[in-house]
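Exercise 3.2. Students should predict the tertiary structure of the chain below and write it as structure tokens, then compare their answer with the key that follows.

Predict this chain's 3D structure.
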Amino acid sequence: MIRSVLILSLWCSVAEAVPRRVLRDKGRDPSDSERTMATELKRGRQLASKGQHAEAVHAFDAALRSVPDEPRVLNELGWELRLTGDLTRAEEVCRKAAKKGEPPMRAPALYNLGRVLEQRGDKPAAILAYRESLDLRENKSVRERLLDLDPSASKDAFGPHPLDGPVASIAAWCAANKDEACHVTDGAVHFSLPKPQGQWLAVEVFTVGESPEDCAVGVRTKRGWFVGRLMSCKESEFRHGVEISVTLIDRVPSAVGPELEIEAKGTDSMKDYDEEAGHSVCCLDADFKSFVVCGIGASGTPHCTPDIDLYPSLDAPKNASDTKLAATWANDELVLIRDDGKPIDDKKPRLAPSLKATAGRHRLVFP
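Answer key:
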């Protein structure tokens, strides 16, 4: 079942972010130069793990002589050059790596570049590199490095977004968005604030759409009604048993009065298709829990965070555990920690990758 609560509420080494296997084109064996590159890449990583950074640089250089500008090798080399103190060449290599390959390769290269620029004393450029890295991939280490360097420059996946409005009423908003049906009194997922609290004169949680349906919130302040979508609430047989709960609590100093904490709990399902039988034999089920935080800052416009998952998704890798996240607060920061009390990076059991990426500190300021 799902219960929703309304709340105002990198990798540190390149080895964690860069794929270990040697990529090869489908349908052909690696060439001699690719084999040599792979051997030197492996040797360089082994030397780096032993703290032999200068020797690792030599190995990565040898790998690049076999396959020039190979993105994975450039990433490793840039990191090791920084550790040897050769910041000039480290910056050159990291900038080259940041332009090579797909986003999963470029994101860690930009993180490496930020670390080099920090050591060179170029704080504005380091901030820009971290922000660009986060544009490509959400990552705890990059996000927290940016927070430590300049909290006001934080680029956060959970940054609050403004709701639509002001409008005269929820009905007026629904009329303006008539392509999506509004279900304002839809049973389990409906919530209505019993009485005004602080700046929240009224709060209504309802669903929008047909299949799937999204949860939406309508809030009334002295400026009028503001409405916005929150999270996926129903998707036929794939998301069901949804329940919504709303709490008002004052956690974030930047908000004026209490924040709305909207928490959702329920079940996600995946059809277990039997190819031999030619039909589904029922479902694979997993509980889910997520929440949204809404607040009103100095602008007077209500803002809400995106949906924040606390449980691993149904499609999490098989080697990931069912360990969950819990939310805590520290002034203008939301902190997501493991619910078993272990460090985020602990591998016994391993946190699901999607949760590991969003765990840790998040700047939470309501404009």
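Discussion points: Residues 4-9+159-363 form one domain. The first helix runs from residue 14 to 17.
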